[in-house]
Amino acid sequence: MGKVKVLITNKQTEVKIPVGIRLLIRKCCHAALAYEGFKDDAEVSVMLVNNEEIHRLNLEYRKMDRPTDVLSFPLGSDGKYEQNPDTKAYMLGDIVISLETALRQSQIYGHSLEREVGFLTVHSMLHLLGYDHEESSLKELQMREKEEAILTQLGISRDQTFVISEHSHPEDE
After folding, report:
1. How many Å apart are CA 120 and CA 115, to the nearest integer?
2. Is the distance from CB of 76 to CB of 82 less than 8 angstroms?
């Protein structure tokens, strides 16, 4: 697999970002690309926002007047992506995660915020790679199976607990 640049921006103050969450997001992006056999250099942008901001984006881009957990903005289609003229990496798109909703959902489902953010990141990466669970129930099932397989590889499946590595680097925080 090529190099993967994941630009993470925090634009919210409502939820304290747990130690290791940026590293987890990067690992999830890498794992999704590896699982799908993406061989080239790639760039992905991930923005962490509050419910108010994701509500605004959901209304503007999807005409849905409510907050949601994650939004995906693919920059390619049919497996074709534009290349960054400077780096020659393929620009896959943008992921927007509401940490407020992720925290609430983690409490509802009885797992960690890390597990929820990992799931939302992998889910959104699959959207950036062209998967759409809204096409049919079969597509939804296929996407769920891929998500769980990727999360299991990362050690954050439904049945496993997320463990923060003691060797996380400060620049990843």
Report:
1. 9
2. yes
Counting every residue written for the chain, the total comes to 173
Give the span between the Cα atoms of 85 and 18, in whole angstroms. Answer: 34
Per-domain residue ranges of the chain: 4-161
Spatial separation of the C-alpha atoms in residues 109 and 158, rounded to whole Å: 10
Instruction: Give the C-alpha separation, 27 to 168, whole Å.
Output: 12
pLDDT digits (tens, 9 = 90+) for 3-47: 999 999 999 999 999 999 999 999 999 999 999 999 999 999 999
User: Strand, helix or coil at 40?
Assistant: coil
Other residues' Cβ atoms within 10 Å of the Cβ of residue 103: 16
120-143 pLDDT, tens digit per residue, is 999 999 999 999 888 788 888 999
Contact predicate 72/124, CB 8 Å: yes
> In angstroms, rounded to a whole number, what is the distance separating the alpha carbons of residues 97 and 77?
22
Superfamily the domain 4-161 falls into:
Metalloproteases ("zincins"), catalytic domain (3.40.390.30)
Q: What tokens does 155 get?
A: 């050690």
